[in-house]
Input
Amino acid sequence: MSGSSTYDLIVVGGGHAGCEAAGAGARLGLHTLLISQDLAQLARMSCNPAIGGLAKGHLVREIDALGGIMGVMTDKAAIQSRMLNRSKGAAVWSPRAQCDRYLYTDYMIEVLRSIPGLNLEAGEVIDLLISESTVTGVKLRSGEKIGAKCVILCGGTFWNGVIHIGEWSTAAGRISEPPALGLSDRLSELGLRRLRFKTGTPPRLDGKTIDFSRMDRQDGDADPVYFSGSPPAQRLPQQPCFLTYSNSQTHDILRSALDRSPLYTGRIKGTGPRYCPSIEDKIVRFAQRDRHQLFLEPEGLTTDEYYPNGFSTSLPEDVQIKALRTVTGLEDVVMNRPGYAVEYDVFATDQIYLSLECRLIKNLYLAGQINGTSGYEEAASQGLMAGINAARSIQGKEPIVLGRDQAYIGVLIDDLITKVPEEPYRMFTSRSEFRLLLRQDNAGERLLNVSKEIGLASPEAIRRVEASIAIKLGLLARLQKTKVRLEDESVPASIFLRRPEVTLNGMIGDGILPEDLVALLAVNRETSFQVEIEVKYDGYLSRERLQAESFRRLEDTRIPDWINYGAIKALSAEAKLVLTRTRPATLGQAKRLSGVRSSDLALILVMLKRGK
Amino acid sequence: MNRNEDTIVALATPQGRGALAIIRLSGDDAIAIAARLTDAPEQFKAKKPRQIFLTNLIDHDGAILDRVQCIYYLQPHSYTGENAVEIFLHGSPFIVDQAIRNSLRCGARIAEPGEYTLRAFLNGKLDLAQAEAVADLIAASSQAAHRAAIAVHEGALSRRVSAIRKQMVEIRSLLELQIDFSDQELPVIDEEAVKRKIDSIIQELQAMESAYRQGRLARDGASVVISGKPNVGKSTLFNALLKEDRAIVHERPGTTRDTVEGFVEWEGLSIRLIDTAGQDDDYDGPDQLAVARARTVAAVADVVIWVEDATAPKETQNTPAKERAIIVVNKTDLIDNKEIRNNYLSISAQKGFGLPELQKQVIERLGYEKDILFEDGIITRQRHVQAVTRAIDILEGAIERIGIKMREELLAADLKAASDVLGEIMGDVSTDEILDHIFSEFCIGK
Output
């Protein structure tokens, strides 16, 4: 090794994936180096200044349950907390927090600097040191070589990034930040398949020039649900968001400029997300809609900048400002910087294992947007798992792979490997087969055992979860024993609570529960909430548990290495290709591969039964 | 390592002597092996696939064994999706046996039960419901059974279930939109419309469920038990309906002890006729056991024919079997006056009076609809109807809960569960057990 120094782990990239990866690796005892182009931009929120939200909130709670950083940071930097989907059942409630984007980065730097064994270094990694298909370190643009036992790549949108605004484009990872060149090409030369994705972001607006009085104000919850089990003692001052709408005039302006859109003139080749279309895309695809919602999010406490969610665009700057000024409340708006689209390289995820380690190059892990995902939470989830698994690999332990029936993080990584994303991948609750079991409120309980095995979560956090489970069981037992007197009969409170119109709060309000039980419920508010869910949804939860068990049976049927899919003539050509490429570890995973039909699966099953 | 590449051989026609016998070979080497069985191997190159040609089968010593017709198929254009050959021989057990032995010598192996269909399934030529239908097709003993099996084999059931599942996916996507994109401006979900859609799915499933009775009748046929007091002429009626002298008839009461069975086909339906011992509560010993058996058989029958004797005094006592039976009064040829029990069907088993009318009543009682369209996807299997019934239960529960308050996530869970259950019909959620169960039903050669 010609390097001047050596680490256990080098993390390349300081976004949400990189910060979790480096934090986890170092806290699990690895001598770790985090290299980022600009250390002042660590864990930057490149797009909207919010963390969590539908399905993503679940991911953050799971990250927290496993001892990751994101939940704690979000609670500290939150300037508005809100539980989404409250009008629906508790299984699909999802917490979201608007954050002060600058404080978020500051807090992250502070936390990372406080972790022993973690070094931060500014620099650009342009190459990997590889020996015998094993990564041994990285090479910086400066020429410096640094050795490492494991390397985690978290390139975000920087790999061969190109930004588009109208007819203008430039090589960049984020606006006014240079792209990362070299690494993507090197992986491609090594034989990894890459794709080109695209994402976009709206312009940023000067709040001093916005007439908020003409918009609908939206405040957060007075009594927030935190992501972390150990929320901060004090909340930051809370800020409102605002709702306004585009109109036909806005749409006319946008439509008349489509011939200058890089999306429609074919300049952009990358695939963008269907669920998060640009405003020009929306007016073309939903021409019948006469308005689209704009959600204005504050960027922080020390800035007047606002983020107009719903107005992502790569139209020319003059069109952006002209269109914005037709929107109610934005008549005099000043744009701090324009919206843009960015194209970047991603690597097909059937080339990594469920541990996120690269199949082709040992000890090399890929995490975050380079795996085709979108979103801070999706990136952080992968960063955390990559950091954990790199540490376990060095320490000679089996990798941690979360099941689809265990965590949204499990769903995320399994989806990536079994269905290579064709557009930036975002988490949705509908991606989970076990949505009622994988709730945001029970992340700690679901992941308690695996979290103990990983060893990142603090002993206090583990004790808190264990205590909460004990309290929950106690409360459930009390509700079964406590009788509620109805008109002509008396039934256990737990049976009464199952009625659709009955709530725990309602029962307390009606004074039909004994005082000491009411006091117990009041002290353990979040646990009481879980108790209510488990009682009310008992039938559904039982059914889903049964489904999860039968799912487990396929999941636990391992496919041995001797299987040679190429030699199984009867497999469909598509199945042969995808099975050979992905080499699913279990029958369950094989079943989820797109292109594998039930007859292909049955064939594998027969092969397994018949043996070699 | 892959046994599926083996070439298998089996007799596709029934064992024993016949005008013709068919041997089938399937697998990679099917054509090569077949060629080595003949005295003109080059024919298999000269002739096109699916073209029938004459050739000589030779024995291992080179002597001509039989003059046969041959046809070969190239994969994937065969029943199994593999290379395949069919040889039409003369139906001599000796020739067949020699031909199969010779093909084993050339590298083929005997097919396991159900292996042809298993291979067709594994090669994606059949889905699970279709594969089951093959077993039914082979076992089809009546015209109706054949029609039902053909319809399932052609994929009618799979198509119908797929269409229902597609409707469920459509509703689910509406719900998922409300759950996963609730932070965006969405159209309000029309609860009534959702309810109507689910209702119509339930109705469709219920139609399938009730048609199962037709499907089951067509597949399994029906059992018709002849019951009554001793010596009322049950066995005479049995023989008359069967049109052969099967049961022993004697004037001594209690001649029939064990149940006697025979098959007839009425209106295209396979009917298992069962003659039972006469029921007399005063019997003891083996006769008493015979009565018990007769009652048990009657209890599980699809239809019971309760026979009374026109020459005997009117019966007053009702037995459970009698209550749900078609009551016929036999031996009406032996009495003159026509005042006999006019509520009941008068017959004479001896003379054959009233028997066509009795057949008609049995068919009516079975509720068999002769003109049912099996092409619409009728379910003929217990496994299928169980899935349909479970899906109905789940969806009815869902409708009930919408009535109280619609919860998108619970409704979505119900629709997913119902859809998964229906998917089992096509083997979408194929498990070891289902496959094992199904393929064990096939006989060699299919």
Q: What stands out?
A: Chain A has four domains: 6-78+92-156+344-429, 204-342, 459-543, 557-610.
